[in-house]
Write a structure and sequence with these properties.
The complex is a heterodimer of chains A (442) and B (74).
Chain A (H helix, E strand, L loop, with lengths): L1 H23 L3 H33 L14 E7 L6 H9 L6 E8 L5 H6 L6 E6 L4 H12 L4 E5 L4 E2 L3 H6 L7 E10 L5 H24 L9 E5 H6 L10 H11 L3 E12 L5 H22 L10 H30 L10 H26 L9 H4 L3 H22 L26
Parallel strand pairs in A: 1-2, 1-4, 2-3, 6-8
Antiparallel strand pairs in A: 4-7, 5-8, 6-7
Chain B lengths: L1 H31 L4 H25 L3 H9 L1
Classes of the chains: A alpha/beta (442), B mainly alpha (74).
Chain lengths: 442, 74
């Protein structure tokens, strides 16, 4: 009885607190103060939400995933490539080792001027075809060219620098047993952890991106498939209009188009593939700026709430809009603080510096817990991710130095950008192909 | 039809914001010790509960093309 009365009393206190806050928001000053509190606490809120939802996803969905080896619809793997001589051989070798019976691989060289085509042709056989486009059409143009060619049930995109695990495709394909699923995305991991910057990106892939995909999997809609390796139902892809060149992030745009039409995108955490992360600041900044620009372009195209048939897209849309609002508020608060310091007034008016320190501590601790949960969930599929947990303490610094400025620049470009996407690749790390078979024609 | 869709989507968006607000207030209470930490914990639980309700409602209201195909075939 005491327990229930304590709960009722706590609920009553909570109700009064929320009501008092709502009433106080009547004045502009309190409203601004409320916005600043939102800016301070939003990361911690999202950390808690992501951790709980990802955990529930792992319990309810991930633990029930099964592998039916008899289910193997025909599949075409498309590898769009533009000047990828450093990495293409290894990608082809990895794809050749994939454990899947009903498979064709198409390498589409989009106006490459280096040895990409020459290297790819060494492997050409009846299962692996090389297509050479003389005029450069961009990634989405190359993918659309391949879409017109294929006659298989499934269509998979693999970037030229992506290593696919041997069992990844068989696991991804399982999700297509559900007729509502139009696309499946796997679990991306960093292949080249060579310095601190790439190691922090590895933390980001495990602790942030993997957790976001799990949480969104529970919501029912994903922000995007991973452009580096994603599988689609060919008929649906053609129904919604295929690949378009209207944004710089064709994967995000297509994901929204598919989901807006009412189809589902599934996340397959067991399907692991490794991507090359930028290892220096400028290419990383450019990559993140492109992602941010693509997000704004997609919002311009598909951000209309009234036109969304798929109600599960609403929380995803809210998440994106709130993230944008949060960054803008942080910048406004920082600018306000700088003005206050320059004019000799107190810092952090409305929020004591001590509060700020406590909140920063809480947020960093929650992020470490989130990364820990991500590592635990991923340890089933990718061993040795534990060393990433201490690095999560550096993630806030990485966020301030890379993500925040690149997002601001990307959004500014995205607001005024026009259609047309050309290849914008990150610098590749040369990979030695130790397998001698890459030098001989198969 | 468009109006109904806008109304439904707006309600889901408002519920999502309510969940976010409850979790945010919960963290504020726990982190800054403005009330008893248990009040904050209950706020966080209530917020996550609202989010779960949002996920369930959004999933139920989702208009899927394959569902329409199945309905037509029947």
């Amino acid at each position: 009885m005491n327990f229930f009365s304590a709960i009722v009393s706590a609920l009553s206190d909570l109700w009064h607190y929320v009501c008092a806050e709502a009433l106080a928001m009547g004045s502009f000053r309190s409203f601004w103060s409320e916005l600043r509190e939102f800016a301070l606490l939003y990361p911690a809120t999202i950390c808690i939400g992501l951790s709980i939802f990802a955990f529930i996803y792992a319990l309810l969905r991930e633990s029930r995933l099964r592998l039916d080896k008899g289910f193997s619809p025909s599949l075409s793997i498309i590898v769009p490539a533009c000047d990828e001589e450093l990495v293409i051989a290894r990608t082809i070798i990895k794809l050749a080792n994939v454990d899947y019976p009903n498979l064709k691989i198409h390498i589409v060289s989009d106006g490459s001027v280096d040895r990409t085509v020459e290297i790819a042709r060494r492997f050409e056989n009846d299962r692996l075809l090389v297509h050479e486009l003389a005029d450069q059409r961009g990634k989405s143009g190359a993918l659309q060219y391949a879409l017109d060619l294929v006659d298989t049930e499934l269509y998979m995109v693999v970037d030229a620098d992506t290593e696919v695990a041997p069992d990844a495709i068989r696991k991804m394909v399982q999700q297509f047993k559900d007729p509502q699923v139009a696309a499946v995305t796997g679990s991306a991991r960093v292949a080249n952890i060579t310095n601190l910057l790439s190691a922090i990106q590895a933390v980001e892939y495990v602790g942030i991106i993997g957790m976001v995909k799990r949480a969104q999997g529970l919501w029912g809609a994903l922000f995007t498939v991973c452009g580096a390796a994603a599988c689609f139902r060919t008929s649906v892809l053609r129904d919604v209009g295929g690949w378009t060149c209207c944004t710089v992030t064709e994967d995000i745009e297509l994901s929204w188009r598919l989901q807006k039409a009412g189809y589902r995108i599934a996340y397959e955490p067991r399907a692991v593939f490794r991507v090359q992360a930028p290892v220096s600041y400028v290419p990383l900044f450019r990559q993140r700026m492109r992602w941010a620009r693509g997000t704004i372009e997609v919002l311009r195209l598909h951000g209309n709430l009234a036109a969304t048939r798929n109600t599960t897209m609403v929380p995803v849309l809210m998440e994106v809009l709130l993230s944008i609002l949060w960054i803008l508020l942080v910048v406004a608060t920082l600018a306000h603080s700088v003005v206050l310091v320059l004019t000799g007034q107190a810092l952090f008016v409305g929020t004591a510096p001590m509060d700020f320190a406590i909140i920063l501590g809480w947020t960093t601790a929650l992020l470490a817990v989130q990364t820990l949960i991500g590592c635990v969930l991923d340890s089933y599929y990718v061993p040795r991710t534990w060393f990433l947990i201490p690095l999560s303490l550096l993630y806030p610094l990485y966020y301030w130095l890379v993500i925040l400025p690149s997002c601001l620049c990307g959004w500014c470009v995205g607001i005024g950008s026009r259609a047309g996407a050309k290849w914008k690749r990150t610098t590749r790390t040369p990979i030695e192909t130790t397998d001698a078979s890459c030098l001989t024609r198969k | 039809m468009k109006g109904v869709r806008l109304l439904t989507n707006s309600m889901i968006a408002m519920l999502y914001l309510l969940g976010l607000h409850l979790v945010r207030v919960g963290i504020e209470i726990v982190g800054l010790r403005r009330l008893s930490p248990w009040v904050g914990v209950i706020g966080i639980v209530a917020g996550v509960g609202v989010w779960i309700i949002v996920a369930l409602v959004a999933g139920m209201l989702r208009n899927s093309p394959s569902r329409e195909v199945v309905k037509n075939e029947r």
